[in-house]
Write a structure and sequence with these properties.
- One of its GO terms (biological process) is secondary metabolite biosynthetic process.
- It comes from Streptomyces bingchenggensis (strain BCW-1).
- InterPro entries: AA_adenyl_dom (IPR010071), ACP-like_sf (IPR036736), AMP-bd_C (IPR025110), AMP-bd_C_sf (IPR045851), AMP-binding_CS (IPR020845), AMP-dep_synth/lig_dom (IPR000873), ANL_N_sf (IPR042099), PKS_PP-bd (IPR020806).
- Keywords: Phosphopantetheine, Phosphoprotein.
- The chain contains 18 helices and 24 strands.
- By secondary structure, the protein is of the alpha/beta class.
- Among the domains are: 1-176, ANL, N-terminal domain (Rossmann fold), CATH 3.40.50.12780; 416-506, ANL, C-terminal domain (GMP Synthetase, Chain A, domain 3), CATH 3.30.300.30; 514-595, Non-ribosomal Peptide Synthetase Peptidyl Carrier Protein, Chain A (Orthogonal Bundle), CATH 1.10.1200.
- Strands 15, 16, 17, 18 and 19 form a five-stranded antiparallel sheet that branches. A four-stranded mixed sheet has the order 2-1-10-9. Strands 4-3-5-6 form a four-stranded parallel sheet, covered by helices on one side.
- A hairpin with a 7-residue loop joins strand 7 (152-158) and strand 8.
- The termini are far apart.
Length: 596
């Protein structure tokens, strides 16, 4: 790659990648099942895209959207954008159209890079659209600009309580400080890292930049929800995966029902939620020989700011530490006046140091509230108010305790209920919405209470929500009401709403009562996983709040307790309890005939 700059610019992601490419030019950099690119090829192909972008007028601090399915071409695009000096905005093509459009518009992108043939569907958004597929025989470009450490590298989005997703910029120096941090697990050039995260999710940065930092190979795999519909262990082993960052919720579920899933990994990093002590015990006791890590950190502080190496968890331990802070990062436990609390006491976690991002795009008031001066740094540094509660132990290690506000984690994603409420209330027949999280922390689900005209049905409203919101933000259940009840103080009566939910859940018609051994067994199992409420024979697993993680666990339990192996997609294709019970009985009859 040819680069020109009259000043030395160390510490950028471009420099990080090119250093690795020079060391390991012939090692595999990324593979997706259809195409494998070695480091030299990835460097050359991204150079060509960078030159094309520069010729189109793209330069430093310009933002360029990557709008294409997860594949090796995504990494060509990311590197090409960075080599042009610009900032990438990775948009998950699986999001609803309205959500993707909103992300692109809020990012203020100059250009969109997309798949060949996809340009027409994006032309209405304003930015120039480039349909691009890299080629092995593209001519080498001339000199390219070199970004500076303080230049923007990527734009990320998180859920916003105002109903609009919050966008913020991470700089090269932020991501570089995370990617090669001595407190983090150290990868090897021989490692193969699973790439399962959404390109719009912060875990994507671990998969990408930590791998490129050490010359490891990124292996693009199906998303976790799709893996759970197959044999996760076999999928990892078939692809010879040695490094994985697993969503915390998936880790907790897999550890409970199938702890041997991770046996072949050298490094297992878990992040995005509360890691269960029991899950760690199960995995460590399953013969797991690799290293297990618990990563903590809001997206606004560059994916992670602390990490704990989990080597053992005692039978009396009820929580898992989130670790010491990473090199160059700082974390404080403060009271409501932003004064340090005594060691061992609970306060709000604030994060300072090299990972703190710039702040929210076009939201100066919110930026001022959350990105505040860091009085402990001795300079003009800022710290980020996480909204998380935690404590620091006498040994300096931190523990996560909970949230100080209404924000919840749904399958590892941060969700502001207010954003979901505003989306639902925009339906023409809806007037107001209140969204509550129900269930245990391991399986939180959203339930929406909506004041609406009688002509609106819950099916219609859920279909509307799926068009407006990412899948993880769509409520698992909707209750339509004439009005939202108030308490004696004039505020929304959350207690009354939860009572309405419980009353609605208890109503089962006689014809809906489970009958027979298998239906009764499944009803008990569903109650265990979906909450302590009656389950009818005609209830739909997914409509009742089920998801791919719980479907995986039910399949495992059926195999262990009934001795029946049902297909991986059985619950997806037979979500109604009575239909699933019939399938299990048919499978059992087939097995009995084969044995006899």
């Amino acid at each position: 790659m040819g680069m020109s700059d009259d000043r030395e610019r160390p510490g950028t992601l471009v420099e990080l990648f090119e250093t690795t490419a020079a060391r390991h030019p012939d090692r595999n950099a990324v593979s997706d099942g259809e195409q494998t690119l070695i480091y030299r090829e990835l460097s050359t192909r991204s150079d060509v895209l960078a030159a094309h972008l520069v010729a189109r007028g793209v330069g430093r601090e310009d933002r360029v959207v990557v709008h294409r399915p997860r594949s090796s071409e995504v990494f060509v695009a990311l590197l090409g954008i960075l080599k042009a000096g610009a900032t990438y905005v990775a948009v998950d093509v699986r999001y609803p159209d309205k959500r993707r459009d909103l992300m692109i518009q809020r990012s203020k992108a100059k250009v969109i890079v997309t798949e060949p043939g996809w340009g027409a569907r994006l032309s209405h958004l304003g930015p120039d659209v480039i349909e691009w597929h890299s080629s092995a025989d593209s001519p080498a470009p001339g000199d390219l600009p070199l970004p500076a450490p303080e230049n923007g590298a990527c734009v990320l989005f998180t859920s916003g309580s105002t109903g609009v997703p919050k966008a913020f910029v991470l700089e090269h120096r932020n991501l570089l400080a995370f990617a090669r941090n001595r407190v983090m697990p150290q990868l090897l050039p021989t490692d193969r890292t699973s790439q399962i995260a959404s390109v719009s999710f912060d875990a994507f940065h671990f998969e990408t930049w930590c791998s490129f930092a050490y010359g490891a190979e990124i292996v693009v795999m199906p998303a976790m929800a799709e893996l759970l519909a197959s044999d996760v262990k076999r999928e990892l082993e078939d692809r010879r995966i040695s490094v994985m960052i697993a969503p915390t919720m998936a880790f907790n579920h897999l550890a409970r029902e199938s702890p041997e899933t991770f046996a072949g990994l050298r490094v297992l990093q878990v992040g995005g939620g509360t890691m269960l002590a029991s899950a760690c015990r199960d995995v460590l006791a399953s013969g797991f020989k690799g290293s297990l890590w618990n990563l903590y950190g809001p997206s606004e502080t560059t994916t992670g700011c602390s990490v704990a190496h989990i080597e053992s968890v005692g039978p009396e331990d009820t929580s898992v530490p989130i670790g010491p802070v990473l090199d160059g990062f700082s974390m404080y436990v403060l009271d409501t006046d932003r004064k340090p609390v005594p060691v061992g006491e609970v306060g709000e976690l604030y994060v300072g140091g090299v990972g703190v991002s710039r702040g929210y795009i076009d939201q100066p008031e919110l930026t001022e509230q959350r990105f505040v001066p860091d009085p402990f740094a001795g300079d003009d540094s800022r710290m980020y108010a996480t909204g998380d509660l935690g404590r620091q132990r006498p040994d300096g290690v931190f523990e996560y305790v909970g949230r100080a506000d209404d924000q919840v984690k749904i399958r590892g994603y941060r969700v502001e209920p207010g954003e979901v409420e505003r989306a639902l209330a925009q339906h023409p027949l809806a007037r107001e919405a209140i969204v509550l999280a129900t269930g245990e922390e391991l399986d939180l689900r959203l339930v929406a209470f909506v004041a609406a005209d009688s002509a609106l049905t819950d099916e219609e409203l859920l279909a509307y929500a799926k068009r407006e919101l990412p899948e993880y933000m769509v409520p698992s259940r909707v209750l339509l009401l004439p009005r939202i009840p108030d308490n004696e103080n004039g505020k929304r009566d959350v207690t009354a709403l939860r009572a309405l939910l419980a009353e609605d859940s208890r109503q089962l018609s006689p014809s809906d009562l489970p009958s027979g051994e298998t239906e009764t067994y499944l009803a008990r199992l569903w109650r265990e996983f979906l909450g302590d409420e009656p389950v009818g024979a005609t209830h739909d697993f997914y409509a009742a709040g089920g998801n791919s993680l719980l479907a995986f666990r039910i399949r495992q339990r059926v195999a262990k307790e009934l001795g029946v192996s049902i297909p991986f997609n059985a619950i997806l294709n037979h979500p109604v309890l009575r239909d699933l019970a019939a399938l299990i009985d048919a499978q059992r009859d087939t097995s009995d005939r084969q044995v006899s």
